[in-house]
Amino acid sequence: MKPTVRELKGKKGARLAMLTAYDFPSARLVAEAGIDLILVGDSLGMVVLGYGSTLPVTIDDMVHHTKATRRGAPEGFVIADLPFLSYGTPEQALANAARLMKEAGADSVKLEGGAEIVPIIEALARAGVPVLGHVGLTPQTASALGGYKLQGKDEENARRIMEGAQALERAGCWGVVLELVPSPLARLVTERIAIPTIGIGAGAHCDGQVLVFHDLVGLYSGFTPSFVKRYAEAGAAIRDAVARYAADVRNGSFPGEGQSFGMKDEVLKRVMESR
Ligand code: KIV
Question: Which residues contact ligand 1 via a Cβ below 6 A?
Answer without folding.
Answer: 20, 39, 41-43, 81, 177, 179, 200, 210, 212
